[in-house]
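Predict structure. Chain length: 486.
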Amino acid sequence: MAALVATSPGGDECLEEDEDELEPGLDEVEAEPEAGSGAKVAGDTRGAVLTRRGITLRVLLRDGLLEPARGVLSIYYLGKKFVGDLGADGTITWQETGQVFNSPSAWATHCKRLVNPAKKSGCGWASVRYKGQKLDQYKAAWLRKHQPNVPPAEESLASEGEEEEMPEDEEEEATREGRAPVPELAVTKKPEERSKKQQCKSLAEPAGTDHGPPAKRLESKPRVPVRYCTLGTRDSARSPQTLVEVTSFAAINKFQPFNVAISSNVLLLLDFHSHLTRSEVVGYLGGRWDTNTQLLTVLRAFPCRTRLGDAEAAGAVEEESLFLRGLSLVGWYHSHPFGPALPSLHDIDAQMDYQLKLQGSGNGFQPCLALICGPYYHGNPGVESKIAPFWVMPPPEQRPNDYGIPMDVEVAYIQDGFLTNDVLQEMTLLVEFYKGAPDLVKFQELWSQDQTYLDKLKGSLASRTPKDQSFTHVLEQIYSLLKLSS
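Prediction complete.
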């Protein structure tokens, strides 16, 4: 399923005009005017007739509304900024890579798909700015000068359905007005300008400060999940801990933009970590991303052995282990100890933030996966923890202040043949770390009528444990340590 995107019903595409169709030979345009459009060019001594689709960058350059220069074109999309050069021939050169595009829509679509692979169109004339002003405003100015009889409604055609993409200097003003622009992220820097340490630390930092960092949050009273379609526009009065049901890609007539495979040892370690404490835990996912097959393989879990949401310590705990093993940071996990494995509004915003941070500004899409583990939720069938993968799709273009859409991710699970020493060592270190903690689960107490919390833990890990029995005695030693610790 290599990044295939189907048409969305009632989709978020704008009414984009394909200016490429009339790009060649503009000096000899002979096109017929559209019915009732009054499209004959006033004052043009060559007698050329242009429909609105024929107004291209070359036309605006020829008639002096634009001038070729470096760095005069820009796109702002979901916290990222793209800068381009305008050529004298009407082409656009993206400064980041040197790629050349023949139209605003081609450039905008390419850039937006790097951030959101499900994006179908770029809404180029409404998205690309020339010296800070949208290109469709220059097109409207040309129409007013050369075709004054065109109704004003026609002039805004290219902008329909397109959100206001706010440049950085407008975000502060938007915040004062109560709107919710995407927070500024360190994603416009080139990857080499951001150390791997910064990337790790970024994943450990909570997305907001209103409700405490992940490792401090406790599951209190049961939270009833809501459907995404009931959320509407962002509302500061709504609790960030509101749980949201995930949406399948099939339900919105789209393909999942990447494939995922997860090692069973990853699930075993994060499940073990999640069982240890009544507080939420957090950790990293290490693996590899294959751009050819569009396959994300998650090979290792790296638990953050930190307390009280210490973001700096969390970022340093496993970074050396991650990169010394030749793995990339491909996602994160956290737990909802006594609640369902569904993302909260806070989790959705955090995941969107992390997707952008891991994306960087490279010339290619790179996914970031989130996993939620619900170890002690009594709504789970049986004793096995629910571990739910999700990814966030940006809201529709015409509703930029809506929440991101939490998407259910289909994954393939790879059964490991044996437990690695790394996993066993991590389990031992976790037991040692939480020993004596006030929120450590009391494993000898009853979880249900006939099972202790330790029975529950063993039962959940059983399905994720390799068939190789040579490590059984080591696991039993770890379980014994847990009894003593609690």
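Summary: The mean pLDDT is 76.
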